[in-house]
Amino acid sequence: MCGIVGYIGTKDAREIIINGLKRLEYRGYDSAGIALQNCENGDFNMYKDKGRVAHLESITDFSYSSCLGIGHTRWATHGVPNQENSHPQTSNTGRFFIVHNGVIDNYKELITSHLNDSVFSSETDTEVIAHLIERYSYTMSVNEAIRKTMSLLEGSYALAIIDTYNPYRLYACKNKSPLLIGVSDDGVIVASDVMACVGYSDRFVPLEDKTFVEIDGAKYHIRDIIGKEVVHKERPIDVDYFNIEKGEFSHFMLKEIMEQPAALRTIIGTYFNDDGSVRVNRNILDAIRTSDRLYIIAAGTSMNAGYVGKELFETLAEIPTEVHIASEFAYNMPLLSDNPLFIFISQSGETADLRAVLVNIKAKGYRSLTITNVKTSTLAREADHYVEIMAGPEIAVASTKAYTAQIAILSILAYGLESHRMDLRKELSKVAISIENIIDRRDYIEALVEEYLTKRNCFYIGRGIDYYGCLEASLKLKEISYIQTEGFAAGELKHGTIALIEEGTPVIAIISQRAIAKNTRSNLNEVKSRGAKTLVISTKSVHQSEDQIVVDDVYESFSPILTVIPAQFIAYYAALHRGYDIDKPRNLAKSVTVE
Ligand code: F6R
Question: Of 154, 169, 287, 307, which is most buried, counting CB atoms within 10 Å of its CB?
């Protein structure tokens, strides 16, 4: 996590870095900092503090011009969020400024073996890097000192580095954590995400692991750790500025919930031919078809989409599918089938837990497919194949449109393999309209939230695919409203968890599956008779007159794509009424680039 931005060129470094940090705040927002060169007198100034980028902006001196700087927005890993632990961190004498995204696993060993006479002013692992670079710079060039330091670091890092002795250079390097450079005729940006470059650069170059960049004005050299030039390709930046702004919406989350019908229509337009057949690279469909088992690897919301994917692959394409928590799978790999295909689902395409698995299975020679919203991301670049979910930039930390887009893509992949039992294109178009119908009734859902979500805890219950929907619904509610919420298999309640139900506990049931609707209703009655305040989200064909939220019927295996919409609104309004920061909930970050 953490976002880094650096700039060198003829434009105002401060504006580019502060705006870039605002756009990267989704990566962490415990503290923020910036180091700038004052072009007028050559001095370097550093501003940093606990708190958001807006606060950093308010403490930054805007009275001088600056053409070189680095900035950081932090998600704390080592040391509490305070001024000392904020980045930039500096070397012993203050010669080097650095900003860091990642975790250095061996920083304590490095202190003992290389820096035991150093005085540290923070608790961060990052400061060790600054001290090492300075130490080596006494006996070698800065370029070599950075590469030498890289060779000692174990763990993940994306670094931007300023040498105050040479204000005409900006340095950057990376391993595991994402980093790219944005290029334009007036200068070069170093950033964790291309979003920081939109409007300032027209091309970008994603950097590979263990590479090092030396930037001199608008010229740059990318080298590997031993100093050999790396062949690279500049790519156009095609992100629309409008897509990364909130516009008329009060929150990105609300905007992104509302964008779901449009995202589905983009997917339909991209992945279907005029005759209704799917338009997906044959090699991808063949890779799925020829595997004897699919292993879906994901985290959080993407994993919840993966569960629906399992249902789709098993019912539509009859391929056995397992879903695994990436962070568990990375270090506890189960026995695999003879011919597996690994499917990585990740909105950001940067999640470190997934990357650990990808590196591992690639080394073993297994095939991989990444389903992601960011086609230039690490997971997209490093897997054998990738499919883009076309949801458009998702800025709110709580994922909404990426979830529904992931399910739509999974349904298209599964459908591409089967002998068409239904018209999926038509079905997805129906879903888009049905989502619009729910959006139109959001005020009603807001009123339900006021009436029902009055306690510190809540349960979502469902069976089968509705249970998978409950997992996502509960994740949404807990992460932004801080109501302790569990998604539970309805039938499992009575084996222990029902003990938690007391007078007024909100229990929300999702009911969309004909075969098991009655069973879920029985479980609902069980909690009702123990005092629970129940609310039902059901589909038309299984609804009962007292159900509060009734959505349209869709092909049963992807009903979570529709039942999740009221749940997203429930989470949104519950957080809104509690006055929380909806787009940036506490302790979280959107792109989780540490394991
Ligand atoms: C929750 C949420 C997270 C992410 C998870 C994986 O709203 O967004 O649970 O789904 O951190 O991130 P990606 O999909 O980027 O791999």
Answer: 307
Phi-psi domain of 429 (left: phi exceeds 0; alpha: psi -120 through 50; beta: other): alpha
Ligand 1 within 6 A of CB of 125:
no
Q: Which residues pair with 422 in a beta bridge?
A: none
- Specify the CATH number for the domain of residue 574: 3.40.50.10490
145-154 residue pLDDT tens: 999 999 999 9
For 498-534, how does the pLDDT look when each residue is reduced to its tens digit (9 = 90+)?
A: 999 999 999 999 999 999 999 999 999 999 999 999 9
Of all protein residues, the one whose alpha carbon is nearest to atom 9 of ligand 1 is: 300
Domain containing 149: what range? 3-245
The residues that bridge with 224 in the sheet, in sequence order, are: 211
> Catalytic residue at 2?
yes
Is 397 found in the same domain as 411?
Answer: yes
Active site residue 590: yes
Chain-centroid distance of CA 474 in Å reads 18
Residue 190, by phi and psi: left (phi above 0), alpha (psi -120 to 50) or beta? beta
Compute CA distances 378 → 175, 178, 360, 506, whole Å: 11, 7, 15, 41
Residues 262 and 210 in one domain: no
Question: Does 423 share its domain with 350?
Answer: yes
| Candidate from 26, 75, 351 with most ligand 1 atoms within 8 A of CB, to mutate | 351
pTM for this entry: 0.87
Q: Within this chain, do residues 353 and 424 fall inside the same structural domain, yes or no?
A: yes
User: Distance between CA 308 and CA 318 in Å, rounded?
Assistant: 14
**Count of beta carbons in the 10 Å neighbourhood of residue 319:** 19
Asked which of 410, 435, 460 is the last residue of a domain, the reply is: 435
CA of 496 to the centre of ligand 1 (A): 29
In this structure, are 135 and 257 located in the same domain? no
In this structure, the answer to whether residues 576 and 533 fall within a common structural domain is yes
Instruction: Single out the residue in 228, 245, 262 at which a domain terminates.
Output: 245
Residue of 193, 253, 323, 348 to mutate, ligand 1, most atoms within 8 A of C-beta: 348
